[in-house]
Write a structure and sequence with these properties.
Blueprint: H1 10-15, H2 23-35, E1 41-45, H3 52-64, H4 79-86, E2 92-95, H5 106-117, E3 126-130, H6 138-149, E4 155-161, H7 169-172, E5 176-179, H8 185-195, H9 201-207, H10 212-221, H11 223-237, H12 243-250, H13 255-273, H14 282-291, H15 296-311, H16 318-334
Parallel strand pairs: 1-4, 1-5, 2-3, 3-4
Bound molecules: zinc ion (ZN).
């Protein structure tokens, strides 16, 4: 196991240098790695789209690297480092749901336990990354608990989750927790613009809940859909489209992203209403135009309520929440007509 030198986190900083918001959680992990043996359970929790999985792989790479440097630095060149990066290291196991929205079933955890029981290769360690851990079924979480309660020597389970609250307390109590936090909006926009200059990053960042890697992915995979939905939404606030028609178009969208889109639109409108600077795009110009007819206080209230829905999204009825969001938006924009 590599020992930390005086500059405890310099290795992490170089490994994660292109994702600067991971430095704090990387430093926390570096402390855990340097002060003791790797614990049997580690929980990396925070929003999606921040690189939590990459952080988990970085832990594995440092653990498996054959020529680790000082400051918890992996060499990046040995076969073990290359295998971790390629996802083919024999002692690094990964558990994910079988399908996009399905649960992680007990069979997957039983299979993992069997594989973990087999002897490890040259490193003497085995690491399993379970992601997203909030999708563990109750039976699967209970099965996992057995491995956490009676860990075999050298075994570490790294749970990657969007929130620590979604996991059973019994599992949480067996894990060392490391929070992964998003950067400030300003830093995230600066980082995104360094990768690709575009004027609409704030939309994608909002849709991704403030997570820069999530914004990059969404901008690559959803642009046509977002354009169409945003165009329709702007027509609704301008009174040129039937809100019911928009509601049926929006029904195909995940509620979280619809809330993100409407929150973004209301925020832009609020800023336009007080003449605050805005990124220049066709959309922001149209929203700014519509906001001149709106009531500023209602815009702010609608924005706060829409934003608040994100916090309670798990308990919402999607159809009712969609109706409420559209009504709020229309009321805010039409209040002065
Ligand atoms: Zn190496």
């Amino acid at each position: 196991m590599p020992r930390a030198g005086r500059s405890l986190d310099c290795g992490w900083r170089s490994m994660l240098s292109d994702l600067p918001w991971l430095h704090d959680s990387g430093s926390r992990l570096a402390q855990i790695l340097s002060s003791q043996r790797l614990p049997a359970g580690l929980l990396l929790y925070g929003p999606r789209g921040l690189g939590r999985h990459r952080l988990a792989c970085a832990v594995a790479q440092i653990r498996f690297c054959r020529h680790p440097g000082s400051g918890l630095k992996s060499c990046e060149e040995c076969p073990a480092c290359m295998q971790v990066r390629a996802g083919s290291h024999p002692d690094l196991l990964q558990v994910r749901p079988e399908a996009e929205n399905s649960a992680i079933k007990i069979e997957s955890i039983r299979d993992l336990s069997r594989r973990l029981a087999l002897s490890s290769g040259s490193s003497g360690a085995r690491i399993a990354i379970i992601s997203p851990a909030e999708r563990l079924s109750i039976a699967a979480a209970n099965a996992l608990l057995k491995t956490l309660e009676e860990p075999s020597p050298g075994v570490t389970l790294i749970l990657v989750s969007n929130a620590s609250g979604g996991l059973p307390a019994t599992v949480l109590s067996r894990c060392q927790r490391v929070r992964v936090s998003p950067p400030s909006t300003e830093s995230a926009l600066r980082w995104l613009n360094q990768r690709q200059e575009r004027t609409d990053w704030s939309i994608w960042l909002t849709l991704a809940g403030g997570a820069p890697l999530g914004a990059l992915t969404l901008a690559r995979t959803l642009p046509d859909d977002v354009s169409a939905l945003l165009d329709s939404l702007i027509q609704v606030v301008n009174g040129r489209r039937d809100p019911l028609q928009f509601a049926s178009q929006a029904a195909e969208w995940p509620l979280e992203q619809l809330i993100g889109l409407i929150t973004w639109l209301l925020r832009v409108a609020t800023r336009a209403w007080v003449h605050a600077p805005l990124p220049d795009s066709v959309w922001t110009r149209q929203i700014a135009q519509a906001s001149h007819l709106a009531d500023g206080r209602r815009l702010v209230r609608a924005w706060q309520e829409a934003h608040g829905l994100l916090a309670e999204i798990q308990g919402l009825n999607p159809a009712l929440a969609r109706e409420r969001l559209i009504l709020l938006t229309m009321q805010a924009f039409r209040s002065a007509r």
